Fold this protein.
Amino acid sequence: RIHDKLKSYETRTWNEIKKDTGGKSSGNMSHEIPISELSKEAQKELSKLNLDDIDSLYSLRIGGKERLWGWKNGYCLEIIWYDSNHEVYPLN
């Protein structure tokens, strides 16, 4: 399922992906999030991975609360986490 979702992104531009809306809110389903807004646990993990020098991560909605997290490297997303329950960027 994750592979199929990623494959659907391959032919789209970042601008097209960022315009996707849906779910319970009218907000974007995939977007960039500043590191300072991530959970404290996620920030600690970035430091352990020696990735604490990046300013933001990109969240790709897979479905429901599921997200893939990574950073944009040119046209690619360097994936670092699978977040099954939207815990990297907790919803209030």
Q: What stands out?
A: The chain has a mean pLDDT of 86. The longest helix spans residues 40-48. The helical segments are 2-9, 14-18, 40-48.
